[in-house]
Design brief:
The chain has about 80 residues and is mainly alpha-helical. Helices cover about 65% and strands about 0% of the residues. The protein starts with 5 loop residues before the first helix and ends in a 5-residue tail after the last helix.
């Protein structure tokens, strides 16, 4: 069975169902996600609401940058032998 398209998800959402209910319905009906797995409420919410998608993108970019900075600090402290912060 092919993956559920965003248009199908939007039509289900127009019936007044929330992300969790849509997710449950897609999984119960056997619709695989884009990569063939199960649907998650956050994925459905990102498809329904472009603002949620953008907020997630910004949050992910911030988290990646924080992780990179921590990695740099850890490497520097190993090289210098002291706590660099």
């Amino acid at each position: 069975m092919p993956s559920a398209r965003p248009s199908a998800i939007h039509s289900i959402a127009s019936m007044g169902l929330g992300a969790r209910a849509i997710c449950r319905r897609l999984n119960d009906e056997g619709w695989p996600s884009k990569r063939g797995g199960k649907w998650h409420a956050t994925t459905v919410a990102r498809i329904i609401d472009p603002a949620a998608r953008e907020a997630n993108r910004v949050r992910s970019a911030f988290d990646r940058e924080q992780k990179k900075a921590e990695t740099r600090r850890t490497r520097a402290s190993k090289i210098l032998g002291s706590s660099v912060r």
